[in-house]
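Progress narrative, work stream C.
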Amino acid sequence: MRKLVLTPIAILAASLTMPGAAALAADPPPERIAPQRLVCISATPEIIARAGAKVDTAVLCRWTKSTSTAFGSYKLGRRSETLPRTLAFATTDANRTWFLDTRVRKGATYTYRVATFAGDGSMLAVSQPVSVTA
């Protein structure tokens, strides 16, 4: 298993076998698509430096806040050419609506999804996939 490097903003909780990974991998029925908008960009050196990350390449993902009263957390999933299955790899609390992915390779394309989860761990909704080249 690869060692995770935790930066102040990188990962609140991370695991390759995080609960909810299957939910992020599956295409939800249309009525379950989250209304929040997910945007991911290749992070500029300035963004990386402000985050305190010690990497050359990163992807910044931002999304709009969930308005569900049952809402508890967000889980971010990612897939790539070398890993075609979406894995949940980061969890943020209800107040954080961004994530800086520092475990990317320059020039590689990644596809992200963000899912909202209730306090009891059940998935409320998942965003449409968004692709970005690091």
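Work stream C, second folded protein:
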Amino acid sequence: MNFYESWLATSARLDETLGHPPVVARGRDLTWIETPQDARVAMIIGDAVGFPTQGTSLLKAEIPARSHTGKHAHGEEAIHVLAGRGFSVIDGARYDWKPGTTLHVPYRAEHQHFNTGDEPATYLSASTMDLDNAVKLGRLLQLEEKGPNPPDLDRRYPASASQHAADGRRIRLHLEDAIDEGVDYLVRTQSADGSWGQGRDTTDHDVMASVPGSHDAFRVGTTALCIRALRARARRDSCVPVTIRRRLWARDDPGAQPDESLAGSSWEADASRPRRSVADRRRRRSGLLGRLGWAAAPHGRRSGVTGCKS
């Protein structure tokens, strides 16, 4: 078979593989194995279990009580802790974790995970091992094997409160911190007109869209999502209702202060409010778009209205 025939065969095989892919991964179907790295690990999504991806894989692994994984290095990885408490050593630095913690393992960083509790620890791992291998960048170095924790574990790896690597990259994020920091980001990055997002903040090019009014519609949707997130937090943070109310005033008078008489209005979180009728919600939505100044442009796109900052 020459190279062109090989390409044709590969194309046909890909068409067949992608024609009827699985769409659901079930826990009861997982095949658990033991490796030098993990005492118990299973692939949830990936080519090896019949899920065609573009090079990504998702694993589930368990660390026995008072034990550690092996130490290895490979491409980038994201880890989310489901159960257990312990810490990871990534490039020589310690990062404590608990249920809800997410870790970022940088490219080729040596890393190892330690369960310091009396129950098994469980985590999810997402990586691009197959993609790295496909483009000839993949390397997997097994430096140490799994085993029980040494008695002098804390002396070897003193506790650290930092969530960042020495170069400033974020390595660890607890779930509660993610919510707080997300709210802080929204409050900090609100535009002068009370909305969120400028496409030019992330690229040198404007966001293009051929549908008239689409930029306005996208910005309305983005700001609505931001407000929804802030409303969910409004009871715990006094600056959040002010940030939400600012949107009503900034369009006509950017220098005006939010009217405190709006406190307790529908802009603030109020779980006890009765659900309104569909017709009433439509009327309120139409009036809200007018107050926000984002009625869709009848002809073409408006200048200066771009996508959402991420």
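Residues 214-233 form the longest helix (20 residues). No further action is required on this item.
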